[in-house]
Each structure stands twice: as structure tokens, then as C-alpha cells.
Amino acid sequence: MLTTHAASGVFSVTWLIIAIPLASAAVLILGGRRTDRWGHLLGVAAPLASFVLGLVEFATLVGKPEVERSIDNHVFGWTIVEGFHADIGLQVDALSISFVLLITGVGSLIHIYSIGYMAHDPKRRLFFGYFNLFVAAMLLLVLGDNYLALYIGWEGVGLASYLLIGFWSYKPSAATAAKKAFVVNRVGDFGLSVAIMVMFATFGTFSFTGVFSAVHGADPATLNAIGLLLLLGACGKSAQVPLQSWLLDAMEGPTPVSALIHAATMVTAGVYLVARSAPIFDLAPTAQLAVTVVGAVTLLFGAIIGCAKDDIKKALAASTMSQIGYMILAVGLGPAGYAFGIAHLLTHGFFKAGLFLGAGSVMHATKDEVDMRRFGGLAKPMPLTFATFGLAYLAIIGFPGLSGWFTKDAIIDAAYHKGGTSGFVLGSAALIGAGITAFYMSRVVFMTFLGRPRWEADVHPHESPKVMTWPMILLAVGSIGAGYVLMLGGRFANFLAPVVGHSEEPSVQPASTAGLVTLAAMVVGVGIAALMYLRRPVPAVAPAGSFATVAARRDLYGDAFNESVFMRPGQYLTRLLVFFDNRVVDGAVNGIAAFFGGFSGRLRYVQTGFVRSYALSMLGGVAILVAALLMVRG
Amino acid sequence: MSPMFYLYLSAVLFTLGAVGVLLRRNAIVVFMCIELMLNAANLALVTFSRINGNLDGQIIAFFVMVVAAAEVVVGLAVIVAVFRTRRSASVDDVNLLKY
Amino acid sequence: MSPTILAAMHTSGTEAALFWIFGPIAVLAALGVVFARNTVHAALMLGGVMLILALFYAAQDAPFLAFVQVIVYTGAVMMLFLFVLMLVGVDTKERLVETLRGQRLATVVAGLGFLLLLIAGIGNAAIRTSEGLANANYPTNAAGQIQSGGNIYQVAKLIFTRYVFAFEVTSALLITAALGAMVLAHRQRVMPRRTQYELMRERFVRGAHPTPLPGPGVYARHNAVDTPALLPDGSFSELSVPTRIRELSAEQGRRPVPSSLGSAAGSDRSSAEGDER
Amino acid sequence: MRLLAAFHAAANPNAIPAPHIEYRAILPMLIVFGVACVGVLVEAFVPRVHRAVTQTVLALAGLVAALVAVVANTGLPRRLVVQSAVAADGPTLFIQGTILALSIGALLLIADRSIGADSDFVAQAADLPGTEQERASVRAGLRQTEVFPLAMFAVAGMMLFPAANDLVLAFVALEVLSLPLYLLAGMARRRRLLSQEAAVKYFLLGAFSSAFFVYGLALVYGYAKSVEYGDIATSLTSSDRGDSLVIVGLALIGISLLFKLSGVPFHWWTPDVYQGAPTPITAFMAAGTKVAAFGALLRVFFVAFGGLAWDWRPVVWGVAIATMVVGAILGVTQTDVKRLLAYSSIAHAGFILTAFAATTRASESSVLFYLVAYGFMNIGAFAIVMLVRDADGEANHLSRWVGLGRRSPLMAGIFALFLLAMAGLPPTSGLWAKVAVFQAAYQGGAGPLVIVGVLASAVTAYYYLRIIVLMFSQEPAVEGPTVVMPGALSAAAIALGVAVTIVLGVVPQTVLDLADKAVPFLR
Q: Which of B16, B76, B78 sits opposite C34 (nearest CB)?
């Protein structure tokens, strides 16, 4: 299962997949203004080229017998420190090639879209430079055949993400968000780096093959520790509880960034990490349980927050958090869930990117408005956007036959199949999450595209240019079809099997009991949303003083009842969670930054500039050191 | 009397020199206090030389003297250069670089 | 002198007397270095400490070092210090107010702590015997004969054999010192040397006292330099007594002007301030 | 020859036998000392117009020749030479080679005058700042070429310091390396007041700390009856004296070494002096002194006091933690780029101390590797700092660096590379340096130190990346400084820095092997 095969043919140039965007990024970042005129074209061409290469490799890979579907492309031997020889190589197998196609495919579409979206930005070239840097790093992350390469890519995407969130750093909120993302991610990265160190200390190697072949004899406690540390890393990058808080703020970046990095690719790196480390997690039940718990908590947490956000991008970000929760939950389920988690990741890549691009298109049309209370009725002026957004919406809520339905149901089903109390709890959480998802996503659609227009007088919504709509259309096609392609007949599970192991479960029946209940939950969610946001006009100002508004609309007695019975507790819960998110978690993160800043700011005044003070503290230090030494001696 | 008393004396002188460095403001006096510390060390060296019964201590003291002489030249040159610029030999006045 | 004697921990009575007389003086002098307001006094105190140390070196079988101490330290280094003090201005006195908050208290605490640690370190060293330098200065050969030697010979032998490299390297230090002093003090003339004519013009154009200042007056009862000269109109010349001397005599309570001619006292005091040639 | 000596001895029984000196083993140092002396003569005899060129060529040739001599000496057996005053072993050669290579880089910066009419050094150090005389000196195109022999003396001291095998020679070497630096620190052309202040502070605190060294040396001598490292090591097991003597002596010596390598709480001079000194000197000092001081630290503590490792280890732990924390946290709010690099250098000293605290063979080699990596990134970073100028000379305030990446992407990119290296991020030498020291620390049982180290490097990464973001993601100020195109000399220095940083980032093994082959210290 873990054997790899030496690269030949097209696989021997796998490194080009990474090198092309990297070179392009170097040209664009270092090239200065000279590249302004053609920079964006180069920026688009690079991921496209990688995509084509990836496709060819994929086709070749599929054509091989199953046992040979893991190709190790040894780039160079890297003897780093005495006693270990890190063969930095690239590994093409089912898992990595799936990611490669997602990253370069969806990435290319978003790149194309960005040509239009960033058309008026004077720094567009630089934007593409960072974008390509991101793509290269992400590709390294998924293609590396060892944890070290993964870590390098991991840090690389972190850097690119940081640069891109802060791309409009003249906005203080963007600069702060970038900093926050950076700090929170460092916590996760710390976990990952320690995990790698422990791994090396235990197994003496970094390589996937080396580690995975050594895990069988390893101490379970060590494996659990490694697993938990890896999970910490995954939580940071994938915005899982408790390290989720940076994702909502990261929406300060340009929308294509949100689409590519904070929805489709980078945030899924945590899922990749867990799936890739499957052999470790399979032997570390505690860590695996922790993974599922984190996933389940996050999927509910994100979904509830999604209900409260009026900012369209933040609502989508909350939904991303929640959907990644599903994936994490799935990969935490072990062999039964890996394939579904990854499949959901792929379909999510399509529909979430579609949703974000749609949101970007809406913002583009309404002078960068993000407040959904100032949208409404946009379906008419922007039919294409509405259609693509709508398809993606149907996919995410799990409308039967669309891609999300296949993958999400599969996860819920798999969670129930885990059995025992934990299986029931996890499955139910996922089920409830599906209902809430339907509610808040419907809310987004209803508030944005349906109902009466609430936009400002000077806003004249219009459809976006072709360079932006075509990517949306293609993504919508993906949202429809990806599910069939991946899930029918367990095709994807079989494809992935050599990497993550076979599941004994039969492929999921779309018409299972759980599937039916899920469908019902979805219908209920959509229904409530329709009641609240379609039948009733949406106030252009958030009903902050909802007590007063309820009183004013007493004639709608049923609605008032609805509100007091269903809404209010929900709102309180939501507020509580948002409060928790804003104050406690953000507070902790901001607090850490402020602590260091403040500490440093105060401490630096110790450096008074007076020689005599310096000499005094030196003498004090001497006395302390001498005393310490004498005491140590006894 | 035991030669140990020379050592105690040297410790006292050394500490007094160190204290002087911290208390005096005139750079030249600060520097003189450093010389006092070196002298105290030399006393210890000579005494140890006698206790140990070999001459290495005296040689070391000799080297310390040579080094101190060179240090004095450089140090006083630096101090005079600063004095000519600022018209002040106080170490508290060289206080632009901080924080 | 028998080379085989093993000197005990006890030294001769003469040496003990020497130590107990001069040791406390050395400590007092060191205190003087630390606390004397006047920098010249501090320098002289330091010279005193150094001389006493030279004495102690001599008492401890280190005649060569004793002389080096006198010649190099007390002779050269201290002179350099004094020279620079003169250059910087002998009359600079330190203000006694401590400007850094807590510096004094912290210094005393740290200093005492450090001293205690040093004493403890030395006191616990359990040094029981003192070898003495007789063997080192006059080693015996295999046959038991005392070899030629003496302290200076043995020191030289060590310097030029065991420590020869360190000795050679110190030359780099001396060159550095000379070079450094030269760099910071020597100025190459880049502006043309001013001619006598220019100097003269400068002086007269400024209008300040073109002629030499008047010398001090000499009277029948006072021929000291702090006695001001009489001008033709019978008043005293403010310029005839150098500022520093005026300050000194004022400090010592001596009136700069003979009291019999007291009418000039006021004018003299006023001149003590403004006169800054 | 021998006959003559025998004759001489017969004629005078008191004649001191000439000591045997292995000239070849100390040839690298002799070359540098010799070149420094010749440099002084050049000052005396070569006409002023030719001096700068002559000195540059002479000094560079000397350093290269010494480097060649170091390489040629690698085959020699490891032994004590020159009356066992000098240890001719692997670490000596490795450190001396490193110092020479770094000095070549620093010397290129010192010699470069292409950054406009004004170099970084005073025209005449004796001129009073702001006077007509000073302006006249500048107009006359004078140049303080004594900088070269002074720098060469410092290089020689740096080479000797870690090679010395007894405390006396170490002390003399310490002074040989320090005295020229005190002088050089005061020779900045711009901001003379700051520069002189740096010189005074560096001098007073340096002299203060070397007084502690001498007293420690005296106490150790009292304990061990000798100052040779080997004898000290032997005496630790055989001496009948109480240990307290050697413990205090060891502490005092250690303090002086910690001062030189800016360990907390003896780091105070570092930010002030780094900021005030002329930038090429800062580069020289930051790289060279640190290498020399760490080399000496390793030799003194491993060879002479290795037997007391159990006693000094906990204290080194404390110092390492304090050093990392102070360097990391105080760097966060710095606004002057040279000061920031100074705090970064403190933090790096802390990282190196973690490996030192582990006291294994791996800690020796990892420290050596770290020193190479750190030295070159430092030279490169300061070289760039030197080039960012406006009308008033260097623009060191970070607010002036905003948007520099837009204005001069190449230079800002190179600076970013060095910052990444300092942060320990791939693909630079800094990554492996950190991996090496932390791994050594971990294996040596200093796990908690590694945790503090990783956290501290996260904090330092924050301030390095902040500069990168500052340079690249914001528009440049209208009247911001420009990056002067480097002259051939400083371009060479920068290229050297970049090359080493990247090569060690991609294929660190060669140098790691070298470092590994070099250790252990000759005991």
C-alpha cells in the first residue's frame, strides 16, 4: 500500500507544476512596474500551464494499474543534518493529484476572474505575483513526499495568505486582519513543527513512506501526541475551533483571495494534512476522536455564526468554516470517511469558489457593498450571477442530485455508521448542521437576489464582464457535476484507496434513512428562511432593537410568534457565540499581540541610554550569576 | 598573618572599583575606577603566585599591566574626543542612544 | 636561602606589620577614588593605591613587578590620567546629586552582595599552604644544586618561552593604542596655515584686548599673583588677575584685593564672572 | 644553527633557550598581524592619494592569503603549538576561516566609496563635528585610511581569541580585538555625536567587563595553579582547593564572554553601539565578534571547564532564555533598522546558547554552523542598510523604508531574503541553522529551551516579516530615501551574503560536514 514507484515519462517533470507558478511569481514580484502591462496574463498562464500538466499526469495515473498509482519523483537528495537524509521529492498519487487539479483548475478560473475584478487596482501585477506564489506554495504542500516539504509549503501559503489579506493594507482593518491571521496561524504552525520534530526524533525520518512504515511498531502515546499536534496545525490553517477566529477577518482581502485561499484551497490544507497522515491517525484513536469532535463542533459553530452575519462575505466565510468542519469530521472517521471528506473538499472547492465569485460579482456591481441588507432583488439586473450563485447554493445545501448532496450526505451517513454513542452524536451534529446550512444559505440568497431592491440610489447594478462571468459559469458546472463524477459507484473512494486505505462500508446509498432525514432538515431550513426573509420585507437596517420592531409589527402575529419562539433563543445563542468569538478568542489573540507590543514598548525604556545604569545591571547580573553558580554547586 | 589577607584586600579593592564605576559621572574617574579593578586583580594574581609557588601569576600581572596601559591610551583618546565635541566629560551626558 | 623550605601560611612579622599599616590605607585611598569630589584628588588617591600595591608586590617576592608597577602604572598611566584631567579642566567638580533614581542604593546593594560572594568564594577556597616563591625563583637541578636565577631571570625566562606568543601579541595592542591616539588627536592641515597678518587682523577686528593683559600688581606688603594691578587712575585692573586664581583665592577666603584698598573689592567680584577671554 | 645555539648555551649557562614555535600553524594569524603592521607603515610612507587603494588591496590580499593558509593547514595534525599557547585544531581552523571570509565581506563594505561622495567614515576623526575644519577636510577629499590597519588588528584578535589555549593569551586577544573596535565605532561620518557616544559606551562597558575577566582569571589561576585550559581541566579533579574559587572565577570569565556575544543581562551596549557605529563597522562587529566570542566560549567552557558542566549548565539555561526573550520582545517595537538588527542579534545569541547549553558534540558543530550562516546574513543585511540613503546619509528609521520594495525591488528583495534567513524560514541558511541548534539542544536534554526558542523565533519572525510587509505592500513615501546602486565592492559583499545564505539553505550538508569534522575541540 505504501510502496512508491520511480518517476518516468511525464512524471519526471512534476517539478514543473510547482516551478512554473513560482517562476512567474518571482518575475511579477521582482519585476517592478515593467511587468504592469502583461503581468496579469503571465499570472494567469502559469497556473493554467500547471493545470494542463496536472491533467496529463492525472490521465496517465488513471491509466496505470492500482498498485502503481503512487509515483515518487525524486528531485534531489538533501542530507541536512548528520544522520538524516531528507530526500526532497514529489509524490504523485491519487490524493495529491486530486489536490493539484483542484488548486490549478479552480485556481486558474479565479485567476481569470481576477483580471476583471482587479482591473482597476494599480497593483494588479503584484496581486498576481502573490497569487502565483500562493499557488506554488500550495502545490508544494500537496506534492511533497515528506513532512518537511509539506511544512515549507505550509509556511509558504501562510506567507502568501498574509500578504494577500493585507493586500489593501491602507485599510487598517485589512492590516489588522493580516496580522491576526498571521498570529493565529503561528499557533497552529507551532503545533505542526513540533509534530514534525517529534516525528523525526521518534522515527528518524521525515518522509511519508518512512514514517508510515515505522508507525506500526510505535508507542501509541507518541502517535497520539503526534496526531494531536498535527490536529493543532490543521486547526490553525483550516480555521477550526479553537483557532477559527482569523478566517472571518481575513475577508478583508480582495474577494478572489477569499475565493481561492480562504474557501477553496488553503483552508483545506488541514484536511489534507489529516488525510495524508491517515496511517498515523488510524493507529491513534484518541487523536482521531479529537479530530471528529473538532470537526463537529466547528461545523455547528460556523453554521450558527453564519446565521447572524449580514456581511455577505462573512456569511460565506462562516459557511466555509462549517463545511471544513464537515471535512475534518469525515477524515476523523478513519478509512470510512477519508474519501468522503476529500470528495466533499473537492466539490466544496467548486461551489464555494462559485459562491465567493458570485459575491464578488455582486460587490463589483454595487460599489463594493457587502451588507446584504442593502442588496435585494439583484436577480433581475444580474441574471448570470444569480444563476451561477443559485446553482452553487443548491449544491451547498445538498439539493438532491447536485454535488454537495452526494458528498455531504455521505459524510453524515458515515458519521452515523461509526456506531455507538459517539457516532450518533456526531451524525446528529452533522445533520443539524445541514439544516442550519440550508437556513443561512437560503437567507443569503433571499436577501441578496430576491425580495425588493434595497440598494442605495446611486448604485446601478449591472452584470459583470465576461472575464468574470465565465469562470463563474464553469464553476457552476462543476458544482452540478462533480458529485456524480466522484461519488457514483464509489469511484473516488476506489481511486483514493491506495493512499488512505479501503473502507469496508459499501458505497453510500443516496436514499438511505439518514439521507432522507437530511433532506427533510434541509427543507425545513429553507422553509424557515423563506418565511422570514421572503414573506417579510427585510429591513435595510439590522433589527438591533428587535424588541421595538416586534411591537411595531404586532399585526403579523404568526411571525411574532415565530420570532419569539424560534428566533430569539437562536439569536441569543448566536450572539453568545459571536460574543465568544469576538471577545474571548479574538481577545486572546489580540491580547497576545498587544501583550508583546505593550510589553516590548514598556520594556524598551529599560534601555535608558545611561552607561551607569547599564554597568549597574551588569554588576547585578554578575552578582546573580555568581550566586546562582555557587548555589548550584551546593 | 596569612597571604589570604592580600586576597581579601584585593576583593575589597575590586568591589570598590566596580562601585566607583557605577557612582562616578566623570568619564575619566570612571575609567580610573576600572584601573583600580585591574590593580586589585593584579594583587590577587601576585598573591596567588606566591601561594601556588610558581611565577605564572606574576607574568599574568605583567601582561595585565601592558594591556591596561594600551587600554588607557585608547580610552583616554576616546574620552578626549568626546569631550572636545561636547565640552563635557560626564557619562550621563552621552545619552542620545537609548530605548 | 634554602630552596627546600616549605613556607607555611604564616609570613614574617615585618610583612604583617607592613600589611596592617598599608592595607587599611589602601582601602581608604580606594574609597577616596570613589568618593573624592575633586577629580585630581581621585587621581592622586589612585596613585597612592598603586604605590601601596607596589609595596605589597615587593613584599611578596615580586620585585620586578613592583618596579614595573611604579614605573608603568604610577609613572606613565597615572601621568596620562592627570594630563587628560588637566586637558579636560582640573576645576571640574562633580555635582553630588545623583540624577539616576535608585542608582546609589542599588549600587550599594549590588556592591555589597558582590563583595560578600567574592569573599565567600575566596574564603571557602581552603588554601592551606603557601608554597612561597623560593623554589620558583631559585630552582634546583637534578643534582640538588641551586641554579642561577632570581626573580627577574625566571620571569624573563617564562615570558620568552612559555608566554612568548602573548608577549609578541601585546605589540599589536601597543601599535593599536598609538595608532588610535594618533587618529583621534592628529589633524592634517587642510586649510592653509593662517599668516601672522591674518591672525593680527582677526584679533584687532574683533576688538578684544589687542595687547597682552596687564600683569598683577606688586605692592610693598603683597607681592602675590592674586594682587591686582593699579591703573593710572588709581582703580584696580580687573584683567590683571587670571580667573582661576581669582576663584582659588576666593575659595580660600583670601580677599583678592588688599583690604587697605578695599574700594576695588566690588569691581573685582564683578570681574570674576564676565571675564572669559 | 643548532650548533650555534649549543655553543651559545655553553658560553652562557644562563642563556634562555629559544622557544620552539610552529610558524606554519599560526601562519594565518601572522599574515593578518603582518598586514596590519604593514598598513601602519603605509600610512607613514605612501602618499595620501594612493593610500586608500593601497590599503584596500593590501588588506584584501592579506585576508585572502590568510584564508588560503587556513585551508592549507587543514591537513596538519591537531595539536597544541607555540609552547601550547595556541590550539591548532579543527574548530580553530573552522572559526578562523569563517572570520576571514566574513572579514573579507566587511572589508569590502569598509572600502566601498561608491555610495556617493561621502563614505561612511569620517574624513578626519580629529576634526570637531560641525566645524569649518571638518567641512574643509571633507572638501579636500581626506579619508581616515587608518581604518584599515585597525580593522586588520581586530581581525587578528578575533582569530586568536578562539584559538588561544590559555586564559592569558585569550585575554590579550580579547583586547586586541576590542581596542580597534572601540576606536572604529566612533568614526561615523554622519551623526558624529551618536557615533562618539557609541564609542564611549562600548569602551567603558567593554573595559568594565574585561576587568571581570582578569579577576576571574586570577581566581582560576589561584585554584588551578595554571591558566592553560588543559591544566585547568586536570585540576578540576585533582586540586585540593575548595571549588568555590574556581566557580566564582568561571562565572566572572563567563560574564566577560557573554558581554562580547551580547548575552542578557550583559547586552546593554549592543543596541546603542550597533546604532551609533558606522554601518560597515557594525556589520564587521556583529558578524566577527560574535563568531570569535562564541568560539572562545566553546573552548573555555568545554575544554577548560567541561568538568564543571553540571554546575554551569543551569545558569546557561537561564541566560539563554533571558537572551532569547529580551532579543525577541524588545525587537518588536524598535523603529530604527540598525537597532532592530541589534536586538535580532541578541536573540540569535540566545538561539546559539540553547545548543551550547546542551553540551554535546552536536552542540559544538551546530554552533559552528549557525555562526557561519548568521555571519553572512548579517553582513548582507547591514550592506543593504548602508545603501538605503537620503540627503542626510543613511535612512535608518523604519518609517522611511515604507514602500522600498516598490522603488527598488531587487535590493528590497535581497534584504527580504536576509530577513527570512534571520527568521529561519526556507529556503535559507537560517532554517538549517535553527534546526541544527534546536536539534542539538533537544538531543542534549534541553527541551524546554527549544520550546522557548521556537516561541521566541516566532516573535522575531513577526518583526522581520513586518519589515518585509512594510517594504512591499505599501506605496513609497514621496520624498522617501532611495537605494543607492552599490559599487563593485559592496555589490560583491552583498553577492557573497546572498550566495552563502542560499547555498547553505539548499545544500547545507557540505558545511555541516565540515563543522562536524572540525569538532571536537582539542582537549
A: B16
Distance, in Å, from the CA atom of A374 to the CA atom of D99, rounded to the nearest integer, reads 66
In a domain, C79, yes or no: yes
In terms of Cβ atoms closer than 10 Å to its own Cβ (0-12, 13-18, 19+), residue C206 is exposed
Confidence tier at A573 by pLDDT (50, 70, 90): low
Question: For residues A542 and A373, is the Cβ–Cβ distance under 8 A?
Answer: yes
In a domain, C47, yes or no: yes
Q: How many CA atoms lie within 13 A of D159 on its CB side?
A: 31
CATH code, domain with B74: 1.10.287.3510
Give pLDDT, residue D58.
Answer: 96
> Per the CB < 8 Å rule, is D200 touching B91?
yes
- Closest among A322, A342, A321, A346 to A333, alpha carbons compared: A342
Q: Chains touching chain D at 3 or more Cβ pairs under 8 angstroms?
A: A, B, C
Q: Which domain holds residue B23?
A: 4-88
Q: Sorting pLDDT into bands at 50, 70 and 90, what band is A558?
A: very low
| Residue B71 in domain | yes
Is position C215 within any domain? no
Backbone angles phi, psi at C140, to 5 degrees: -100, 150
In this predicted structure, the answer to whether residue A552 has a pLDDT above a threshold of 50 is no
Chains that touch C (3 or more CB pairs under 8 A): A, B, D
Asked whether residue C181 is domain-assigned, the answer is no
- Look at strands D393-394 and D482-483 and give their pairing: unpaired
pLDDT of res. A79: 55
In a domain, D154, yes or no: yes
- Does the pLDDT value for residue C99 go beyond 80? no
Residue D432 domain flag: yes
Residue D163 counted as domain residue: yes
Residue D7 placed within a domain: no
C1 at D interface, C-beta within 8 A: no
C-alpha cell at D173: 586577544
Residue B77 lies in a domain: yes
- Residue that terminates a domain, selected from C73, C94, C115: C94
Segment C57-78 mean pLDDT: 91
Q: What's the CATH code of the domain at C71?
A: 1.20.120.1200
Domain count, chain D: 1
- Dihedral, D442, D444, D447, D448 alpha carbons, nearest 10: -140
Average pLDDT over residues A294-301: 88
Q: Is it the case that residue A580 has pLDDT exceeding 90?
A: no
Residue A283: all three cell numbers together: 493507529
Q: From CA A339, how far away is CA A347, in angstroms rounded?
A: 12
Domain hosting residue C251, numbered range: 229-275
At residue C274, the pLDDT reads: 39
Give the contacts of A486 (CB within 8 A, at least 6 positions apart).
A343, A346, A347, A403, A406, A407, A492
Asked whether A13 and A56 are in contact (CB, 8 A), the reply is no
Residue at D411: amino acid letter: M
Which residue has cell 591544566? Answer: D231
Q: What is the pTM of this model?
A: 0.72
Residue B98 within a domain: no
D141 touches chain B (CB under 8 A): no
List residues of chain B with CB under 8 Å from any CB of chain A: 18, 21-23, 25, 30, 91-92, 94-99
Q: Which residue has the cell 564672572?
A: C273
Give the end of a domain, one of C76, C94, C112. C94
Question: How many domains would you assign to chain C?
Answer: 2
**Is residue A111 within 8 Å of A44, Cβ to Cβ?**
yes
Residue C93 has φ and ψ, to the nearest 5°, of -115, 145
**With bands split at pLDDT 50, 70 and 90, how would you rate the model's confidence at A146?**
confident
Ranges of residues in chain D with a pLDDT under 50 are none
pLDDT in tens, A316-374: 988 998 999 999 999 988 887 888 888 899 899 889 988 998 998 888 888 778 888 88
Q: Has residue B96 been placed in a domain?
A: no
Residue D332: which domain range?
18-518
pLDDT, residue A77, reads: 60
